[in-house]
Amino acid sequence: MTLIEAVRDALAFELERNPALVLLGEDIGRNGGVFRATEGLWERFGPERVLDTPIAESGIVGMAIGMALAGFHPVAEIEFADFIYPAFDQIVSELSKLRYRSAGQFPAPVVIRAPSGGGIKGGHYHSQSPEAYFVHTAGLVVAMPSTPADARGLLLSAMRSPDPVVFFEPKALYRTVKGEVPEGDRPVPLGTARIVRRGEDLSLFTYGAMVPVAERAAAEAEAEGIGVEVIDLRTLWPLDIGSVRDSVEKTGRAVVLHEAPKSCGFGAELVSLIQEKSFLHLKAPVARVAGFDTPFPYALERLYLPDSGRVLDSIRSAMRF
To answer: Of 73, 126, 136, 258, which residue is the catalytic one?
Structure first.
């Protein structure tokens, strides 16, 4: 499957399994969504379970919250992650706090799907990576897959979580990656990282659309005799800090890679955690490779997005230290 097919398959599987599951979002019904993630589901499950909404993200998430309190399990689609900001107050001030403020009496089983990141020439209004805002908000689970198998498995787990999940989907990978996807009820646990490639010299931590970039950089480093261990975090929060620590304490060096702007990005938190947990094992400063602190550029997209060359430069610097 492609990644987008795996997302669709997960939604269909859970709609069949869970009669309380409902999808809602702009154009997700008859039209199948802007990226066709829900194509065919309106015809298969009907307009009462695949709901078209107005162009009102605050209303979409607000309605999802009300539905969750009434016993439904809503999956809300935000057409692009860039459009999530009108719903920010609903997510941060209401959704994230429901389970906590009610001492568990009112769980909030809401999944918010949002195509994230650049790589499709979408310009600065369709290419942002806002994951750090939501990692910063207590009460939210934040996940981002990089493979079709993980897209399906993580989404199954997200749709069964009693906590709200912000599920970012790297849209640059929707149709550019393909892989074997297990059939049936095969969820991937939230909060677990995946070792993409093993190595002994340096740990490279990343997620989403940067995983293929990390793999290319690791292959290029191997040609220079450097063994890079690539870790796909998969769930940003709760973070699999055990896997992070184990890798760093084995290699003694670390590079963090993401396409969001560098300042106050999720990489900053990851660097701090590595320093707190594994400082005495480090042989070099932890490096960050990220997007630049500018609005996402249209014409210079390829310059903005980290590539294997920039990652390899950081790997070499860490090895020389």
So the answer is: 126
